[in-house]
Amino acid sequence: EAQVTQNPRYLITVTGKKLTVTCSQNMNHEYMSWYRQDPGLGLRQIYYSMNVEVTDKGDVPEGYKVSRKEKRNFPLILESPSPNQTSLYFCASANHIRGEAFFGQGTRLTVV
Amino acid sequence: GESVGLHLPTLSVQEGDNSIINCAYSNSASDYFIWYKQESGKGPQFIIDIRSNMDKRQGQRVTVLLNKTVKHLSLQIAATQPGDSAVYFCAENKGEDRGSTLGRLYFGRGTQLTVWP
Fold it and tell me: What is the rounded distance in angstroms from the CA atom of residue A22 to the CA atom of residue B10?
């Protein structure tokens, strides 16, 4: 089954404690991206990757890091989480030609 | 700031009626537009896309219209069903990444569609 898998689905952490949200896709897609969704603000792009070892900033990259060492994985790293990073996070992947992005189920992160 | 927005944050329609969800964008350079549907507790789901060299594209029960003159995008859902109740987002690619239809995507804030029986 074609899918994008995020882990964990829910996470509560404390300010300053480094965390990683994993994202994996099994569709051999070149493109992967991270978004955060906040009430009233819709989806905002954090980082995206056009292919292995190629990453670019989206709209709201501050406080986040990503890596794309292999095609299927695109982890989101918060080196020092802060309460304003409390949000619902989505990972997505797509084929460049088709453009149809597949989204994961989301990770609800709370930073206290 | 965001250049993709909405005309209405909520839309209520009766089952069987047609729905029209609107979206405005401000960047004439945008060359690719996508509509997504997000049901409660789930990730967004692709509905339909359109490139800037087209005015209209049809899918199953859905039609996207693009008016480049007034920078307006709409999603029409025919014979709306209760299962269509969701938040609908438009997204645009501003053509900043050559060779790809995606790259930086800008999303609108979404329209909540509610379908009454």
Answer: 33
Q: Is A97 on the interface with B (CB under 8 A)?
A: yes
Contacts B108 to A, Cβ<8 Å: 42
Residue whose pair of structure tokens reads 């898998």 in the numeric block:
A5
Measure in Å the smallest separation between the Cα of A65 and chain B Cα atoms: 16
Residues B54-98: pLDDT tens digits?
Answer: 999 999 999 999 999 999 999 999 999 999 999 999 998 876 555
Identity of the residue numbered A91:
C
Interchain proximity B102–A96, CB inside 8 Å:
yes
Angle (CA) A51-B44-B96 rounded to 5° is: 40
Query: What is the SS3 string spanning B8-54?
Result: CCEEEEECCCCEEEEEECCCCCCCEEEEEEECCCCCCEEEEEEECCC
